[in-house]
Amino acid sequence: MRRMRMTVAAIAAAGLAAATAACAGDEGDVDGEGDGGGVINMQIGEVRSLIPGGSGESEGYRIIKNVYDGLVYYDIETGEPENLVAEEITSPDNQTWTIKIKDGLTFHNGEPVNADAFIRSWDRTAYAPNALPLNYFFGTFEGYAEMNPDPLPEDQWADPEVPEYPEVATTHLSGVTAVDDLTIEVKLTAPFIGFPTMLGYEAFYPVAEECLADLEACEATPIGNGPFMFEEPYDPQAGGTAVVWEDYAGDKPKIDAVEWHVYLEGDDCWADFLTGDIDICSPSAADYQSAMSDTELAERVIQQPDPSILMLAFPLYDEKFQDVNVRRAISMAIDREGVLNVVGPERFTPLDEWVPESILGGGTNSCGEYCTYDPEAAQELLAQAGGWPEGEPLKIWVNDAADNLDIFRAIGDSISESLGITYELVPMEWTEFLTARENHQLDGPFRSGWGPDYNLNENYLEPIYGGGASVNDQGWENEAYNAKIAEAGAAATLDEAVALYAEAEAILAEDMPSVPVFGENFNFFYTERLDNVEVHPIYAGPRGDCELRTVTITE
Amino acid sequence: MSELTAPVPTTERQASLWSDAFRTMRRRPDVIIATLVLLLVFAMAAFPRLFTDKDPTQCLGREARLRPDTWFTGDHPLGTDAFGCDFAATLVHGTRPTIALALSVIVASVVIGLVLGIYAGYYGGWLDSVISRALDVFVVIPMLMGAILILSLFRGRVSTESLVETIAAPAIALTLFGWMEFCRYTRAATLETKNLDYVIAAKCLGASDRRIMFKHILPNAIVPVTAVVPTTIGGIIVTESALAVLGIGVQPPATSWGVLLSDGTEWAGGGYVYLFAWPLGLLILTVFAFATFGDALRDALDPKLR
């Protein structure tokens, strides 16, 4: 299953020593000779972009996090950020941050990874006319407003899905300055204690000068600073191979290369996994049953809680969903246990909160009775809200990948059974789906998944529901919530901040712009040729993924 | 005195090809069984409520994959499917699209085949050349492959709101690659018949071409075609299933036997064989019935075999 992802990756590196630039790898790398080498075959969906700031979804990020190194990398056990490209990140007041970069690092093409490399990437993403999906990550930076005026009226856009802006003269974030070649100073508009933990995310990765000179070429053959590099262009429809960068300064991966195979629209990797053509795959409900009854296969499974969550979000810009009682009714109409029985009980756990328990500040059960199955109460709430329009089906919008359609059919069946209304599933292609929900073009509840970027409850609140009604996918805005978020950001200690964010979650729960449905579990099966397979709770992509930086091939 | 009497119409039966064939067939036990099976299937398609009082769209997640341990009794006589819908209801309601698709394809194919075949055979000349070459082109493309090509165009654009919308795309694709056999038979029969004395007599009496074709030649030409029809229906049902398994035939959430079979195969490996066995059994039984019926009809209609 795919979902929206925001995560940060950077390469663990003890002593990133000076690296000489070398662009071309050797074809021989891919043959898998030598001990412990080899090519790992991974499944992937359609990626939106391979340049930092342009993806903002799980699939593109899965490649970007291996081709680029960010400032910090999260510890697989604790989720704490550890410096990777950064030497030191400090702030006296949580508002002005000083980032020191390690000396001697370069991109695949030999360009230095210095303060400018980060600043040019951040400027590109924060510049409104570029219309990049991760633009909002810079909303707390000083100077963001100058680069992001209100867009032109919608009828003046050439493409109705891409907003256009009046001429913006400012092309540089005034809050970001290079103190010297390896030091960046960042001024935020308000204190934010979680700032360093954000920095490992894709939005904050560096970009090479050569990349900006020819974006199209860079989109196909990214110029990164991470352990893997592309020698041949990557094709979003067919996939591609990234080899290990010979001159990588950190801990080099134990494998020679990774080949990504693309699965589109409902195609699923399981059949190819069984024949050994894909190394890691997560089965659908039907396949899961037969896989677990195969004793040999059942030994090669990784099952652990996944802090990712699955929600049914409402388009509050549609008048049918403006009454909170309609939203509560739909939530109470979902028999979460029953849906689990359909899609495989081990794959999910019912969820009644917006921040899962495994995340710092989560486990508040903030949704409470409204996330408990109660068809009678649901009908009553719906009646109070004036009922559902006669003869109109409830449209549920889903991206068609893996068994999303099965999961949402079971959810739809349950709503339909409890409330006595008909429903219709509208499957969409991933990138189209993302665009449609970002542009507020849906007229029914839609699938919304979230995986953590960092270990803090704020990450499950602000990126999804913040930014105001015109920005977030739900079109939701609440002043009390905004005030609480601001208060939490300015808190003196992390503990205080966490508690205040939890209060913001409670305000969110009152309004219910989305319905928490499930917390997820990883159920990743891997082939017998792999060893040391680690699934990173923050970095792992859906449908089958592992840490490419540590996995080994044993054949 | 000799009386001249007008010949009294005998009460003896008038031997006609069709009534003879009917008599021959009703004596064969295999035909009786096949007919019963077909009646059952058609009844399921026409009146699903006779067989189940459950709504196939009412699905309770908590009751998903209940095995049919109670055998034909209880709440779920055939258990429930992967989504907790009553499986007996799903199976019965899935019959209508299957049968409606098969029948619409066969009717359309026969009509197209008959008309083109008669025109080609009767007029000959350039019309015959055009139709025969077109036929050659379509004949070399296997039905399944042709249908896959056509249906790929419809992929993702098919609505499943009404029965007509559900089956329209597969019906068009299957008809497009299903009419050739009927055309060939009709053309051959027309060529044979058009020079017979009674046709020439009709022509001399000034009958129009259309009258000769459809009043005089068609009744003869239709005989060889009729014998092929039941077998072809069986073939269409199987092809529909194949398309559904490939994911391009009838599209879920609409059901047909093919869709059920396709869903059932996923679960058979996990130990829910009944989800796969029931649609498969029904499919085999129906195809067998059509084949038996067609075989008997051919024997009965062919005077040489009598």
Automatic annotation (TrEMBL), chain B:
Main subcellular location of this protein, as a coarse class: membrane
Residues in ABC transmembrane type-1 domain copies: 95-293
Top-level taxon of origin: Bacteria
GO cellular component, one term: plasma membrane
Membrane-crossing segments per the record: 31-51, 99-122, 134-154, 166-185, 221-251, 271-297
Pfam family name, one: BPD_transp_1
Cellular location(s): Cell membrane
A GO biological process held by the record: transmembrane transport
Secretion signal, residue range per the UniProt entry: none
InterPro entries: BP-dependent_transpt_permease (IPR050366), MetI-like (IPR000515), MetI-like_sf (IPR035906)
Gene3D superfamilies for this protein: MetI-like
SUPFAM superfamilies the record matches: MetI-like
Keywords: Cell membrane, Membrane, Transmembrane, Transmembrane helix, Transport
Membrane topology: Multi-pass membrane protein
PROSITE patterns: ABC_TM1
Similarity comment: Belongs to the binding-protein-dependent transport system permease family.
Name of the protein described by the UniProt record: ABC transporter permease subunit
Record organism: Glycomyces albidus
